[in-house]
């Protein structure tokens, strides 16, 4: 029990990061090479931004976004429909003894970056930044 409480609040382990990245690359490769043989998936260019995996490596949450950001929910639904086939392909290609259950979510990273960019370009923020820069540079 002490082991679990000491690991709470920490980020993912090296093993989680390594397996997550392996799954991300493999899934991206499968989607680029149209290995699902589904015309609906083939028509979409889907980016796999990140894969987060549980500490026991049993569940992999894949953050995906179709090119252009349109039909996000459709892309997630299509991939979810093929999750067992994808799991089998990923397990085989990545050489995993036990392929994790795949969950698909919309990747909101780009939306967050756009919101941050918009916030930083706001006049009030720019004036605050300029004001703090002059205060930091003032030796008195």
TrEMBL record:
Pfam families assigned to the protein according to its UniProt record, in alphabetical order: RBFA
Region (Disordered): 121-140
Compositionally biased region (Basic and acidic residues): 121-134
Function in brief: One of several proteins that assist in the late maturation steps of the functional core of the 30S ribosomal subunit. Associates with free 30S ribosomal subunits (but not with 30S subunits that are part of 70S ribosomes or polysomes). Required for efficient processing of 16S rRNA. May interact with the 5'-terminal helix region of 16S rRNA.
PANTHER family: RIBOSOME-BINDING FACTOR A, CHLOROPLASTIC-RELATED
Subunit structure comment from the entry: Monomer. Binds 30S ribosomal subunits, but not 50S ribosomal subunits or 70S ribosomes.
Protein name: Ribosome-binding factor A
Organism: Shimia sagamensis
Upper lineage: Bacteria, Pseudomonadati, Pseudomonadota, Alphaproteobacteria, Rhodobacterales
Annotated gene: rbfA
